[in-house]
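can u pls check wat happens w/ magnesium ion
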Amino acid sequence: MMEKIKMTTPLVEMDGDEMTRVLWKMIKDELILPYVDLKTEYYDLGLPERERTKDAVTHAAAEANKKYKVAVKCATITPNAQRVTEYNLTEMWKSPNGTIRAALDGTVFRAPILIDCVKPSVRTWKKPITIARHAYGDVYKNTEFRVPGAGKAEIVFTDADGKETRQTIFDFKDAGVIQGMHNKDSSIRSFAHACFQFALSTKQDLWFSTKDTISKTYDHTFKDIFAEVYESDYKAAFEEAGITYFYTLIDDAVARVIRSEGGFIWACKNYDGDVMSDMVSTAFGSLAMMTSVLVSPDGCYEYEAAHGTVTRHYYRYLKGEETSTNPIATIFAWSGALRKRGELDGIDALMTYADALEAACIETLESGIMTKDLVSLAEGIETKAVNSAEFLRAIRENLDKKLA
Ligand code: NAP
Ligand code: MG
């Protein structure tokens, strides 16, 4: 039995709900605790504990993330009306992801995990494409209404001294719709910093796209702020790392992405990121193979799976049925967080272990042992569908071989 890897700084551990909470414990028991002398500061973000603490636990977890820099998070339920009844909630608590993102002023980066036997729908893609979505403002914080009939629509800004700036949007002859939206330089700047930092941290090129030719002030502001932040803070570091920052129009970006081999980060405005991340993740194969990292402009990281709590599987699990839920994205959240912890604390063994854990996952999948969701996607190999526990055991066997 090898000696367990020692940690110096705790990882912020955010537990969650339903099937992913079940997997969380299995992953720790099978793949982490036997190898790492795990040091975590534990926060239970499961819905019952959020209810009991009036959601204070979520805010405390976000503060801990700021303090220790690195967190790993399990998927959590975002309450809706049905969950309020199911969990007897006194309030429809906000999405923990939204709360943590706001506290860290962070940007979410989503990237697929690729395996040889699951081919992306786009034939040229050989490496992951990471999407960074600006998660503030634009159409998601808009004001809009229906115009009932003829009249003039104007946009008015009143400054702190009461001075008005006014422009006509449209002279309506008949009914229609209008919409007002905004963004903030400070939020765009944070987004830019998070993107440049993440590109450096993963040594990948960064692409950014907007529609600045049409939106000559709004979108152009995004382009200008990115250029400014790059020139002043990142240009030298990018050149040294041998990576590039590349700006292009959103429609040109779409064409280039499809023709590319992948292997870069694509930063998108809020709406573009919403739409493009669903398209890119679907084209890569499976939501269960999609990782997600929240990065703050001052270098805090929160790792998680992109998928939710897999409710349908959980109800089957509660009935005592076996489930074949894919734990890969959650395992990669742990390996990502442990690797980052190792990097920040200078613990090589932790980084080596994280690499080995990921390699063991990939090898297991490429040997054909996989959960049911992947069986239908796999091509060119003989597959064996296993349940979650069997799958984790197979990964552990491969991991033991690597670490021996
Ligand atoms: P979901 O949990 O991602 O699951 C949707 C479906 O995708 C599942 O029913 C399953 O399909 C498949 N799937 C997702 N992950 C899988 C995995 N690891 N292994 C195998 N199959 C997987 O989304 P949802 O059902 O819409 O949401 C459930 C709860 O999660 C909601 O309460 C929502 O608020 C929450 N949520 C949380 C986060 C987060 O914390 N980051 C993100 C999204 C959603 P089959 O049933 O066909 O097998
Ligand atoms: Mg979407």
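The chain has 14 helices and 18 strands.
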